Amino acid sequence: MRVGCLKEIKNHEYRVGLTPGAVREYVAHGHDVLIETGAGSGIGADDGAYIAAGAKIAATAGDVFSRSDMIVKVKEPQPQEWAQLREGQILYTYLHLAPDPEQTKGLLASGVTAVAYETVTDERGGLPLLAPMSEVAGRLAIQAGATALQKANGGRGILLGGVPGVLPAKVVVIGGGVVGVHAARMAAGLGADVTIIDRSLPRLRQLDELFAGRVNTVYSTIDALEHEVFAADLVIGAVLIPGAAAPKLVTREMLSGMQKGAVIVDVAIDQGGCFETSHATTHSDPTYEVDGIVHYCVANMPGAVPVTSTQALNNATLVHGLALADRGLRAIAEDRHLRNGLNVHRGRVTSAPVAGALGYEVATLEAILNVA
What we know:
Helices cover 37% and strands 16% of the residues. The protein has 15 helices and 15 strands. The chain starts with a strand and ends with a helix.
């Protein structure tokens, strides 16, 4: 199979779908790899590094689209990209379709087979291809929030860890999953007063043991959420429903009860965000203010640290990418975890959460994956 990798074109997106090391693995499996010129520049990998790994260099993105059987990316295809996809081609990348009807329409029209990193599962019920970027985003959320809290950036002028004689900032993390754990770890490490809110008592018990009393845990109710958010200096939105749109847990009305200059960082923005007032921003213009509350809603947070993020992502995506390249649709048919990653196939929505969010009829995999 010929595997293609593009230079990402989303605003300030410096990650790349394949590292030179990953290219060597595909080549070792007998595949041809086509890399758009300059695709690895954001991680310091020039065309020569890819050539040395066994890849061929394409002059344009159009060459990669037209000549490749499988496209490996990082972020969801942009309109000029999904227009170049075609039936019979495999797209392997993050998609986040539930809050993005236009991208969904574009992928359906193309006829492409689209496997989303964020819905591939593992034996433990986890999301192994989403986890590394959730780890990065959780840790970055505290860095971004701490910066936004500075007075010159519109925040309250609070230092997360305080100093002797002055209380630290109060950080509230909504959601105790991978993002939430890593955000809490970073915030606690900086000396903040940290509370994690979740609606799973077993998970709260796990978190209490994990942090050994260094963070507070609170069961999520409307009253508890309001109480914690109103007192917070920094709120991290870390809620995930796999494949589906994020629930709007903090309403516009609730902002009026928050402290002026408080900051919210919505890590769930890829899935539509968990704050009613959230809308996606970019690294070039990351924040905006609503009712005196600073919002940071960058939709590709890990793109700010592309060297770390790309290596972590490739570590996770390589095994399934090789399976797709080696066996094509058969890999999806034979592996239930890859089947969970299949979101769109030849004009049909194959993910129940996406279909439910956008009003499509979900296609059964048995009906569409007729692999002899």
